[in-house]
Design a protein that fits this description.
- It is built from four helices and no strands.
- By secondary structure, it is mainly alpha-helical.
- The protein is elongated and about 50 Å long.
Length: 103
């Protein structure tokens, strides 16, 4: 699986997790508990990266080998994936935060 496919799959699954957490908002009355959903979302992000990597046989601790050796330097798959997917996480976390503030 190439990095863009990984990114796409992660975005789909993370969006599902975000929607699930938004549904939970209606049953939470305490503002602190609502904010704790952001921490849960962060954990879901990390879990999904590991799960997708496992499903695809990617060793996150292994070094990424690019056809252009100067592109990757000495990055592990995990570093590369987190770098390429952090914008997805940020966007979805911002959307979740908006929902928390509006509930």
């Amino acid at each position: 699986m190439d990095i863009e496919s990984f990114r796409t799959e992660l975005e789909i699954r993370l969006n599902i997790e975000k929607e699930y957490l938004i549904q939970e908002l209606s049953s939470i009355k305490d503002d602190q508990e609502k904010l704790e959903l952001l921490g849960i979302f962060n954990e879901k992000y990390k879990e999904l990266v590991k799960r997708i990597a496992h499903e695809e046989g990617i060793n996150l601790a292994g070094f990424y080998q690019s056809e252009k050796s100067s592109d990757s330097g000495n990055l592990t798959y995990e570093q590369l994936i987190l770098g390429k997917t952090m914008s997805i996480y940020d966007q979805l976390a911002d959307e979740l935060y908006e929902q928390i503030n509006n509930s």
